[in-house]
Design a protein that fits this description.
CATH architecture: 2-Layer Sandwich
Bound molecules: adenosine monophosphate, zinc ion
Low-confidence stretches: none
Oligomer: single chain
CATH topology: HIT family, subunit A
Structural class: alpha+beta
CATH superfamily: HIT-like
Helix content: 10-25%
Strand content: 15-25%
Number of domains: 1
CATH class: Alpha Beta
Order of helices and strands: HEEEHEE
Radius of gyration: 13 Å
Distance between the termini: 34 Å
Strand order of the largest sheet: 1-2-3-5-4
Largest sheet: 5 strands, antiparallel
Length: about 100
């Protein structure tokens, strides 16, 4: 099972800051800025390249962005970066899709 599925199943500890029936968000273990949150769907999808419209995956990605917006608002962030690394050559190391929310305020 992948590391994010283990976090989702609570087999590995993480600092969860948001969760619902489809999405979990937790602090990145190696933060690149003051705020570095990973927004992750419970469904295991390896990369953005593997999204399946017919399974509702595009709507799921929309929900991930909505969670990012909510966290940005709650943390009162003026600005933030939202990033998907797609594929090994782009720096993806965990093959379970996740949206990075990175901000210094
Ligand atoms: P990516 O390079 O887009 O695949 O990003 C994976 C991210 O997951 C990196 O920023 C890692 O620091 C982070 N990460 C890896 N393991 C954990 C963990 N156990 N808990 C929280 N974040 C993690
Ligand atoms: Zn997974």
């Amino acid at each position: 099972m992948c590391i994010f599925c283990q976090i989702i199943n609570k087999e590995i500890d993480s600092e969860v800051i948001y969760e619902d029936d489809e999405i979990i968000a937790f602090n990145d273990i190696a933060p690149k800025a003051k705020t570095h949150v990973l927004i992750v769907p419970r469904k295991h999808i390896e990369t953005i390249k593997d999204l399946k419209t017919e399974e509702g995956d595009n709507a799921l990605v929309g929900k991930m962005v909505a969670v990012a917006q909510k966290i940005g608002k709650e943390k009162n962030l003026e600005g933030y970066q939202l990033t998907f690394n797609v594929g090994k050559s782009a720096g993806q190391i965990v093959f379970h899709i996740h949206l990075h929310l990175i901000s210094n305020g």
